[in-house]
Each structure stands twice: as structure tokens, then as C-alpha cells.
Amino acid sequence: MLRHPQSDAIRSTVKSHAANISALYVVNELIPKIKAVEKQIEHTISTVLKTSQTPLHIERYTKLQAEFQLELTMIRMNLDHLLQRYHKELEVVMQDSRQDVLLSLDAFEATAIQNAQQLYQRVQQLQQRQ
Question: Where does the source fall among the domains of life (predicted)?
Fold first, then answer.
């Protein structure tokens, strides 16, 4: 799950636009989990669409797929911005986890990370209903 002790700190400071996140968390948890969510969305919705018999059900899940893809695009754009801004720090922490540093998030990046956490929860709920 994308929940991390830092996620509460991120959530509480998003409004003040002064959120921070661990470089190690970005590398070891955030990026892999966003990739996993992308795969889960594709697998879950494509399975539902293949097995669905009702046009209403197909329409609902097609719209949901478009909504998820739009959200993922926004998350990826802002995550890419974060990765570009801190590429040196992230490279260092990938080589040596003891060199972890806090990265300052802008308001858009903080919102994207919060949205990634929420999207992960929505996908989990969707899978449980299947």
C-alpha cells in the first residue's frame, strides 16, 4: 500500500505547500507502487471489460478506466517533475541508502503523491469487489 508514516505528514502539509518526502521513499516505495497501480488498473479493468455482458457495466468501467488513466497521467507528470528536480539526490540514495535526504515538494507534487495514495486505495477496493 502507498501508506507510509510520512504520508500523514505529507497530507497535513499539502495545504501549506511545504511538504517534504524522503528520497529513499520515492525510490523504494513510491515509484514501484505507482508502476504496480498502473498494472493493477490495466489488469482489473480489462478483465472486467472482457467478462462483462451488460452495456451499462461496460460503459461504467470504460469511463472508470479513462478516469484512472487521466489521474495517472497527472501523477506521472508531477512525479517526473520531482525526479528531474532531484535527480542527483535520487541517484546518490540509489547507490547508498544511508545518504537519504528530504526532498521538498511543490504543491502539485504533494497533491500528486496524495492522489497516488488515494488511487491505490480505489484500485484495491475495485479489486475486492471483483
Answer: Bacteria
